[in-house]
């Protein structure tokens, strides 16, 4: 199993054992992970993992989910891969983590290819309007065979799909749109 697979079963097992031992109490497990090249200093990785853990814990506080996961991928010592901001759905609730891992597995197994997902990611990054990016997503699916189309979940954790982008349904003050493509690229790459 890939690195990302460890966190979801860990959270589930923690929840199961805790409920067994303390049936009247409630507890959750949040996980922060840093994935980096072997020569990356441990101190840098630890600081990044602690920052991700903080984000994961904040998600649990704001949504009451049963566990959470957030991660960062360093391509090099210099920094994080890509511009994260609105280009990620992190942190994930336990349920969302399992869903995106399954989606990444299916895309990898179906030979959908990183190139196609990378093209979608670039289109979403470069689009001047949400409708333009969504049009490219719909076009990409229209020219693909039915069994090779990329189906996005309508609801994903605290997000809901709206014209190819996701909107935060928990925080009403958050009017940004978010994309899933960079998350999928990272998970496919590191799940190989």
Could you characterize the architecture of this molecule?
- This protein is α+β, with helices and mostly antiparallel strands and 192 residues long.
- It has 6 helices and 8 strands; from the N terminus they run αβαβββαααββββα.
- The chain has helices at residues 7-21, 42-63, 94-109, 114-126, 130-142, 181-191; strands at residues 29-35, 67-76, 79-80, 92-93, 155-156, 159-162, 165-168, 177-178.
- Strands 1, 2, 3 and 4 form a 4-stranded mixed β-sheet that branches. It has a 4-stranded antiparallel β-sheet with strand order 5-6-7-8.
- Helix 3 (94-109) packs across helix 6, helix 4 packs antiparallel against helix 5 and helix 4 (114-126) runs antiparallel to helix 6 (181-191).
- The protein starts with 6 loop residues before the first helix and ends with a helix.
- Residues 76-82 have low confidence and may be disordered.
Fraction of residues in helix: 40-55%
Characterize the quaternary organization of these chains: single chain
Shape call = globular
Please provide the count of β strands: 8
Return the average pLDDT rounded to an integer: 83
- Count of individual helical segments: 6
User: Main β-sheet, in a few words?
Assistant: 4 strands, mixed
User: Spans with pLDDT under 50 lasting ≥5 residues?
Assistant: 76-82
- Rg, please? 17 Å
Distance between the termini: 9 Å
Helix/strand order, N-terminal first? HEHEEEHHHEEEEH
Task: Tell me the fraction of residues in β-strands, as a range.
Answer: 15-25%
């Amino acid at each position: 199993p890939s690195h990302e697979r460890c966190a979801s079963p860990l959270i589930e097992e923690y929840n199961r054992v805790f409920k067994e031992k303390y049936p009247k109490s409630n507890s959750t497990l949040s996980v922060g992970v840093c994935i980096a090249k072997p020569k990356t200093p441990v101190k840098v990785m630890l600081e990044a993992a602690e920052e991700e853990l903080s984000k994961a814990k904040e998600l649990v506080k704001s949504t009451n989910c049963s566990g959470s996961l957030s991660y960062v991928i360093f391509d090099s010592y210099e920094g994080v891969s890509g511009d994260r901001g609105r280009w990620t759905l992190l942190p994930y609730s336990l349920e969302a983590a399992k869903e995106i891992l399954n989606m990444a597995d299916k895309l990898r197994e179906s030979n959908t290819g990183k190139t196609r997902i990378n093209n979608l990611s670039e289109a979403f990054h470069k689009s001047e309007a949400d409708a333009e990016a969504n049009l490219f997503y719909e076009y990409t699916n229209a020219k693909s065979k039915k069994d090779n189309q990329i189906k996005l979940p309508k609801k994903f954790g605290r997000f809901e799909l709206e014209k190819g982008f996701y909107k935060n349904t928990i925080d009403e003050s958050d009017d940004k749109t978010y994309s899933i493509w960079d998350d999928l690229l990272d998970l496919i790459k590191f799940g190989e």
